[in-house]
Amino acid sequence: MSKAVAAQPASSLSRLWHKWRFHINILLLLVPLGFMPKYFADASLFRGDSGLGERDIGTVQVGPWSLQLAELRNEAPRPDGPAGYMKSFNAALCDTCIDQVKAAYLRIGKPRSLRAAGVIFFGTPYRMGATLPIPERTKADAELWITLEGWDGSMHQASIPLSQASPTTVAWLTKQGGKP
Amino acid sequence: MSKKSRSKLWFLVHSWLTLPIWFFVLIVCVTGTLAVVSQEIVWLATPEARATQPSDDAPLLTYEQVLSAIHKAEPTLAVQSISRPDESHFALVADVVYPDGRSPALYINPYTGAIQGESPSFDFKAFTRALHGWWLVPFTNGYSWGWYLVSFLGLPLLASLVTGLVVYKKFWKGFFKPNLRFKHGARIFWGDFHRLCGIWSIWFIAVISITGLWFLIQAFMFDNQISISTAGNPPVVARQDVPIMPDGKPAPQISLDQAVKIAAENIPGLEASFVSLPSNAYGHIEVGGPGWYPLLFQTAEINPYNGAIEGSRMIADRSGLELVTESMRPLHTGDFGGLWVKLIWFFFGLILSMMVLSGLLIWTKRTALATANALKRSEKPKRAPKTQTVTAHSPQPEEVNV
């Protein structure tokens, strides 16, 4: 086939196409091969085999309780359609506070009340996640506030600088120059 | 254009569809075929995933009994959900989290509640589905481009079906007079094979290509914020319904069996095939399972503190359009009627894979030559699109009806 095709006068583009067209298969097969390490790294991340998240933030003391925080991914916030940019954090409650803490929340900036404590964590006390919207106008010196609500009705709060919680997010905010 | 040359054109379109990417198409067909029976393959490969009945009259445990058995064996384990696979030879699957944050699935014996094992870190089922569904390309912003790449194949698949039926004269006769000639060489055999498989797979190719195209439309709609959903936001338990406990201990919740009972009483015909525990203090117990229409699940959200049904998604809640679109996935995967439906899908998946191969074999033995000849004939006039010149200069469609 290729002989016959090559015999006819054709533009160089079409000759190139005829010569290499079946090599598209090879390119297409390289795609899953190339993404395989990433696939298995993600599978291990979501199964909790490689720790709480891609980057550990450390333990944060919140009143009488504490929790371990981690960035699910060590990267800038991801766009999520009309919801804007989102950043996921994972957390694990301290062993002694598991039975006392009713709920955990995350927010950028200090919450005015428990009802405005931010996004709630989902999951089990050993490993729970919250996805926090990051407005593009967030200041680089903003703080991440953690609110813990107890079964007895008590509420405790703590904050860490966003630069400590997620340096990649701060770098992303700085890079786009605090859009209005 | 004469009738003959038109059918020659269709024949060439049929022959050339996806040809340069034939191996990609083949792998997508093969991985899809494997994905249909991936749960069964895991069952074969993993003894822990099987349900062995200790004695003939041993009854199945209820969800609450299973939960208690897990907590008795592993008091620190957090259970997120328990599901009962559709076929009785499978062990129950419980999604759990260990204190160290690892969250595997556990295989639980449905009769004894014994933890039989942990799902391996290589999840064959998830892997074959990811490879088939989105070519392992990660989802970073909306649907992955791998998803588009694979679901786009629905288009040439549907076109293959249509052009194949157009060029196969009086194909319905093949149903009554199956023709498979073994003694006339490879080309004749593969041609007969391709046609015979083709006519018996008409329904299957139509189902797979149309549902595949739906996946393309679905991704496009999602990425462009077009929604046809009538589902609304998932409910949360109202703040005043979550008790404040002076002793600081978690508030008592209704048992899983009570939740299943409440759901069954209010949803006629609901067979609870999974129960999800609340995902935080303001979450619901979710009970779900297939209803009278086996392709779709019905679910109910039950307040864990007072047992009220605070949300539900019934068959009747879906719009007509949703009934159709939500049926697309089970129709594509064959996962709606137990093992036999899966085996039918698996069989026709193999046939479809073989059709890609046999089509290629026929092409190498015949079409390549025919096209080269056609191109030679078309050298006289100025270059024009290949198929056009072929139809204009081929009074002799000898390849069409071999």
What are the key terms here?
heterodimer; A: 180 residues; alpha+beta; Immunoglobulin-like; 2 domains; six-stranded antiparallel beta sheet; four-stranded antiparallel beta sheet; 5 helices; 34% strand; elongated; disordered N terminus; B: 402 residues; Nuclear Transport Factor 2, Chain: A; eight-stranded antiparallel beta sheet; 14 helices; 8 strands; 49% helix; disordered C terminus
How would you characterize the overall build of this protein?
The complex is a heterodimer of chains A (180) and B (402). Chain A is an alpha+beta fold and 180 residues long. Chain A folds into two domains: 2-45, no CATH class; 55-175, Immunoglobulin-like, CATH 2.60.40. Helix content of chain A is 28%, strand content 34%. Chain A has five helices and ten strands. In chain A, strands 1, 2, 3, 4, 7 and 8 form a six-stranded antiparallel beta sheet that branches. Chain A is elongated, with a radius of gyration of 24 Å. Chain A starts with a helix and ends in a 5-residue tail after the last helix. Chain B is α+β, with helices and mostly antiparallel strands and 402 residues long. Chain B has a domain at 250-318: Nuclear Transport Factor 2, Chain: A (Roll), CATH 3.10.450. Chain B is 49% helix and 10% strand. Chain B contains 14 helices and eight strands. Chain B has helices spanning 3-16, 22-36, 38-45, 63-73, 124-134, 145-152, 154-167, 173-176, 185-200, 202-223, 256-266, 320-333, 338-377, 386-392, and strands at residues 78-83, 92-97, 105-108, 115-118, 274-276, 285-290, 297-302, 309-313. In chain B, strands 4-3-2-1-5-6-7-8 form an eight-stranded antiparallel beta sheet, covered by helices on one side. In chain B, a hairpin with a 6-residue loop joins β6 (285-290) and β7 (297-302). Chain B is elongated and about 90 Å long. Residues 382-402 of chain B have low confidence and may be disordered. Classes of the chains: A alpha+beta (180), B alpha+beta (402). Chains A and B meet through α1, α3, β3 and β7 of A and α2, α5 and α13 of B.
